[in-house]
Design goal:
Shape: globular
Helix content: 40-55%
Number of helices: 18
Mean pLDDT: 80
Length: about 500
């Protein structure tokens, strides 16, 4: 952050909407529910009900002070925010550095006609500090967003994409200035269980239940004891039933989260900015400055890839390294949105065949394949050795030997898939588009990264001890966008330097 401007210059300071006095106490009380529960237990056990009331009064009182201690102003060159009661903070953001303006409205905000505005800059992305205005009147948000993103607009600027609650005629005018390049469809929800989001939702709940005695109830119950005394077939059936129940619950959780998060998703492109709008309970509107756009990533986890689906993420300077454009969706829809995004960002009016997706990748050779097999099979060898040790000490069940055998089959398939997914290529520069670095790697979580050559700011050619013995290297393209480092794994060393020169001519100097 830069130093704040002189308080005596510029426009007057403004406060947040007064209706936030109803929002913040509720959100803070929900946030501190564990503390309030503890205070109730303490007050009940001590016989003094005041212990139950004091924390509630303090939490509500602290929430109310935010309105009195928070002011902001939008000046000609900077946007400033003052906040804090005990520790006063002043944030100042140059308007030229504003790279995104996000708008959020949960159910409570929407009921009160409010919205949350989050201003994104590269510096904030690095420090984790956010310029957040919670909350403003939803009717003033469109004009504020247009003003904050004025430096990205065309000379003849059209209306902005509307926020929640503005008139329908204004929304229609906004639609005429932006073109839809992607939209969500309900049938895409079937892809949600093919990712790990369901496990991410269920795992904390199950872990908390086991922490509070669910394991003892399940495994020490009479039913569990009866099962333990029955045949192996009965135990297998019970295990399969539990697995099916877990898959069902995880799938339902994933679909629920998917629908709640991405319902009604629209991706709109006006030539200078990219607009995303989605959400069921909490609606979000994200506006990205395409001057900061450096490419895109097509994410293909194993199950999604087998079902013909993928995810699309933007590579933006200073933004979330995994800024999602399309969630789990058919690969055809992902490629169509990516084609329009890349071609329009390059300034072309007509879509050309998407070379970034159709380009043939260069394989990395037998050494890369051997290294993937070695890494995948090493744990199998350790497992087989442990089984052998137990077998030498005494008789073991024959099915124990199935463990290294089944693991070996899985490891071989994984190693081969990782090698087949490994590759890279460079699309040369043309009169209408820059050069592109295309790299792909991974199996369980495979990424195909499409990075513009002008976004590459440095290179690293790294060799471990075993890579030096094998004659391969890992080439790392450094950039200020996205994941910051894009790796090309186990490329033959003679190909490394020509690759660097092809992407950024002259980067090697006299080499």
């Amino acid at each position: 952050m830069t130093e704040p401007l002189d308080a005596d210059t510029g426009p007057p300071w403004a406060r947040l909407d007064q209706r936030m006095l109803l929002v913040h106490p509720i959100t803070e009380v929900v946030r501190f529910i564990p503390v309030l529960i503890g205070s109730v237990i303490l007050g009940t056990s001590s016989g003094n009900p005041a212990w139950s009331i004091i924390p509630l009064v303090l939490i509500v009182g602290f929430a109310l002070t935010r309105w009195f201690t928070t002011t902001y102003r939008v000046g000609p060159t900077h946007v400033e925010l003052r906040t804090g009661l005990l520790q006063r903070r002043e944030l100042s953001v140059p308007r030229s550095r504003i790279r995104s303006v996000d708008i959020e409205s949960d159910l409570l905000h929407r009921a009160l006609g409010l919205a949350v505005v989050v201003i994104g800059t590269g510096q904030q992305a690095d420090t984790g500090e956010k310029f957040k205005l919670d909350a403003l009147d939803a009717r003033v948000v469109p004009a504020l967003r247009a003003e904050l993103l004025a430096h990205t607009a065309r000379p003849a600027e059209g209306p902005e994409i509307p926020a929640v609650g503005i008139a329908e005629d204004e929304a229609a005018r906004a639609q005429s200035t932006a073109r839809e390049i992607g939209h969500w469809q309900p049938r895409w929800a079937r892809y949600a269980p093919l990712s790990l989001t369901g496990f991410a939702v269920i795992a904390p709940v199950v872990g908390l239940a086991f922490q509070y005695g669910l394991g003892e109830v399940v495994f020490e119950s009479e039913a569990a004891q009866d099962i333990g005394e029955r045949t192996v077939a009965a135990i297998v059936l019970v295990v399969l039933g539990l697995i099916a129940a877990i898959v069902l619950v995880v799938s339902l959780a994933a679909c629920t989260r998917y629908l709640a998060t991405y319902l009604g998703l629209q991706v709109l492109h006006d030539g200078r900015t990219l607009h995303l709008r989605y959400g069921l309970f909490t609606t979000r509107q994200i506006t990205l400055d395409l001057a900061r756009f450096r490419g895109a990533t097509v994410n293909e986890p194993l199950l999604l890839r087998l079902s013909g689906a993928a995810e699309l993420e933007a590579i933006m300077v200073g933004e979330n390294p995994r800024q999602k454009i399309l969630p789990q969706a058919p690969r055809a829809a992902v490629e169509r949105t990516l084609a329009e995004l890349l071609d329009q960002s390059a300034g072309r009016k007509e879509l050309a065949p998407l070379a970034q997706m159709s380009a043939q990748l260069t394989r990395h050779g037998p050494v890369a394949r051997r290294r993937r097999y070695f890494r995948a099979l090493s744990p199998v060898v350790v497992l087989a050795f442990l089984v052998l040790v137990f077998a030498l000490e005494g008789p073991i069940p024959p099915w124990w030997w199935l463990l290294p055998g089944i693991t070996a089959v899985i490891a071989i398939a994984l190693a081969e898939d990782r090698y087949r997914g490994l590759g890279h290529t460079v699309l040369p520069r043309t009169d209408t588009a820059p050069a592109w670095l295309i790299t792909r790697s991974g199996s369980l979580d495979r990424d195909r990264d499409c990075l513009e050559a002008p976004g590459v700011i440095g290179w690293t050619v790294r060799q471990s001890f075993w890579q030096r013995r094998s004659g391969v290297a890992t080439v790392i393209a450094a950039t200020a966008a996205g994941k910051k480092h894009y790796r090309i794994h186990d490329i033959p060393l003679p190909q490394a330097w020509p690759l660097v020169e092809a992407v950024t001519p002259g980067a090697l100097g006299h080499r």
